[in-house]
Design goal:
Oligomer: single chain
Structural class: alpha/beta
CATH class of the largest domain: Alpha Beta
Number of helices: 14
CATH superfamily of the largest domain: Aldolase class I
Mean pLDDT: 92
Radius of gyration: 20 Å
Number of domains: 2
Strand order of the largest sheet: 1-2-3-4-5-6-7-8
CATH topology of the largest domain: TIM Barrel
Largest sheet: 8 strands, parallel, barrel
Order of helices and strands: EHEHEHEHHEHEHEHEHHHHHH
Shape: globular
Low-confidence stretches: 1-12
Distance between the termini: 17 Å
CATH architecture of the largest domain: Alpha-Beta Barrel
């Protein structure tokens, strides 16, 4: 179990906490739920794969229904579309389309480690070629006016970190406004530790804001990350699932949620959609979430065993409400 301490130090220093675009996890339902707690300043969507077509508006709105709400979650947190692909012109056209229908800026995915994505020359595989990154970002910048933020998310490299600085400088020189850096290479996956000192090297080598990402699970983690990287902006992903109010904890505005409060969030999550295909989908998402929560809450391990065979939303809801009564 992660031990949390409440420290009154870094809250004023954190300028922005961004919710990471975790594929298959951080959909619009989870964005809505987590931003309702507060503390999150920006959400990046799961990536939209761009191949060779200018996608219709319905594709963007399916990934980000927030586009119908001025590109904000129900609680008012801005949402930025993330694009993934390798064709500069096609990415540029789709970036322009996303802005036209209301996205809060554009983010380019150069960090996804998934084999299927990399096999199709998208995501982290592009880190092998800073020149290619420059071509992509510069072409997208041509169709993304400076009034709109163009950001990019990277890892420290593909096989190793030898190109880390070149990658960051290429993206900066091509016209990106912000850079988000996950402190691992593609080959390192999610194995600890995140190399925060490398994020510091990148921040010192470029002149645009850098957001640090990787292994931020507690207040203490956030404090050390900021001290080592020199970054004022943080991105949280898995940490927000381990501790749902992590953004507020980082900003020293709340104590970590109790198990009872985490159960209340699960109830709210299931209340978002309780009919149609979601009947089978949502119980699986709850089990997925419990797999993260068990790292912070020992009760989650026991509860996960109790609900592992549940297949319908209503049965899962009943189980959570029963657990809530005894928590």
């Amino acid at each position: 179990m992660i031990q949390y301490r409440h420290l009154p130090i870094i809250a004023r220093k954190v300028m922005k906490v961004i919710l990471a675009p975790m594929e298959g996890v951080m959909d619009h339902h989870m964005r809505r739920l987590l931003t309702s707690i507060g503390g999150i300043d920006l959400c990046i969507t799961e990536f939209i794969r761009v191949v060779d077509l200018c996608l219709p508006a319905k594709v963007f709105r399916r990934i980000s229904p927030e586009l119908l709400n001025d590109s904000k979650t129900k609680s008012g947190t801005p949402v930025r579309i993330q694009l993934l692909g390798q064709d500069p012109q096609c990415l540029a056209l789709n970036a322009s389309k996303a802005l036209h229908i209301g996205s809060d800026g554009i983010d380019l995915n150069f960090g996804c480690p998934a084999k299927t994505v990399n096999k199709n020359k998208g995501g982290a595989v592009l880190l092998r070629s800073p020149e290619t990154l420059y071509k992509i970002v510069s072409k997208v910048r041509e169709l993304v006016p400076k009034a709109h933020v163009l950001s990019a998310k990277i890892r420290l490299g593909y096989h190793d970190k030898t190109l880390a600085i070149d990658i960051a400088q290429a993206i900066t020189e091509a016209g990106a406004d912000e850079l988000i850096v996950h402190g691992r290479t593609k080959e390192e996956g999610y194995r600890p530790p995140a190399h925060w000192h490398w994020i510091a090297k990148i921040r010192e080598a470029i002149n645009i804001p850098v957001t640090a990402n990787g292994d931020i699970f507690t207040f203490d983690d956030a404090k050390r990350c900021m001290e080592i990287t020199g970054c004022d902006h943080l991105m949280i992903g898995r940490g927000s699932l381990l501790m749902p109010n992590l953004a507020q904890v980082i900003k020293d505005q709340q104590s970590p949620y109790t198990w009872s409060q985490a159960l209340d969030l699960m109830i709210n999550y299931l209340a978002i959609q309780t009919h149609g295909d979601q009947q089978k989908y949502l119980p699986s998402r709850i089990k997925q979430w419990l797999n993260y929560l068990r790292i912070s809450y020992p009760q989650a391990t026991i509860f996960m065993q109790q609900v592992r065979k549940i297949k319908t939303t209503q049965t899962m809801l009943y189980a959570i409400m029963t657990e809530r009564k005894t928590a």
